[in-house]
Amino acid sequence: MAGIFEVDEAKCVKCGACVRDCAFRALKMEDGAPRMAFPDRCMKCQHCLAVCPTGAVTFDGMRPEDSASVEGLPLPSLESVENWLRTRRSMRQFAAADVDRATLSRILLALGNAPTGCNARSLTFTCFPTRESMDAFRRDFISAIERHRDGTKLLPRWLAVPAIKLRKGEEDMFFRGASGMLIVSSDETAPGVATPREDVTIACAQFEMLANAACIATCWCGFLKMVQQEIPELLEQTIGLRRTSPFYAMLFGYPAVRYARGVQRDSYARIDFRG
Ligand SMILES: Cc1cc2nc3c(=O)[nH]c(=O)nc-3n(C[C@H](O)[C@H](O)[C@H](O)COP(=O)(O)O)c2cc1C
């Protein structure tokens, strides 16, 4: 990892901000200047690059001038995030049109910034961006269910009935007629991966926020998770995902219904201040 942490001596004011902010103490002040002392401890979080007040740190080839400046950057206010939380809805009626590809690409790029435990960054975003690709997945999904049924003849009713309806084109309980779907998965075997399930869930939650901000509606697809638990080979056969890999899916598309008001759930969770 030599050279991963480069300091522009002309710009460094030797304030030690990078050293103090280094989570695992990989950096050290040596002869009054910051140095990468313990490269094995570095989790590549880039805090040193982000915190340096003078832009003296280049990390892993990433130069400070290529980072977004926080000065004047519009950020969501507390009020706007509160409003979003009270009015965001799980969409179960989607428009026919595909989501704009450029917007989707932009969202998935930004989603790469979602935090992961120990900065492991082992996520894969498998995206079915169009109705055509989504319908192809629906067909593969039904075929995998039918292969499983033909092998064991043991399908629970909650799965068998919606599967028949989807096959007949009567109703899509699993995917709610969405034009697109994102499957977030984690390679739990990759080095340094500490929290694969949490990483997946956080990325899904942040996808929902980004998508909604772009007027794209979403719905958590717990049904896919339930089917995978029943048919462990399902995602291996459809998208090549290892059976043990944590994943979650988000349905998305333009909304076909508009909610006129928010819901009233502020008091749902028990708030337990201990001081
Ligand atoms: C983890 C999770 C899984 C979910 N799975 C499904 C699902 O498979 N199908 C569905 O229609 N809604 C699903 N939902 C949506 C919930 O039913 C919904 O969030 C809840 O009823 C509250 O409604 P709201 O999201 O519109 O506020 C899921 C939500 C979560 C958080």
Can you walk me through this structure?
This protein is of the alpha+beta class and 275 residues long. It has two domains: 5-66, Alpha-Beta Plaits, CATH 3.30.70; 78-253, 3-Layer(aba) Sandwich (NADH Oxidase). The chain has nine helices and eight strands. The strands form three sheets. The protein has a four-stranded antiparallel beta sheet, with helices on both faces. β2 and β3 (33-36) form a beta hairpin. The model has no long low-confidence stretch (mean pLDDT 96). Flavin mononucleotide binds next to β7 and α8.
Write the topology of this structure.
Layout: E1 5-7, H1 17-21, E2 27-30, E3 33-36, H2 47-51, E4 57-59, H3 78-87, H4 101-111, E5 123-128, H5 131-152, H6 157-168, E6 180-186, H7 196-213, E7 217-220, H8 222-230, H9 234-239, E8 247-253
Antiparallel strand pairs: 1-4, 2-3, 5-6, 6-8, 7-8
Helix pairs in contact: 4-7
The structure holds flavin mononucleotide.
The site of flavin mononucleotide has 9 residues, from strand 7 and helix 8.
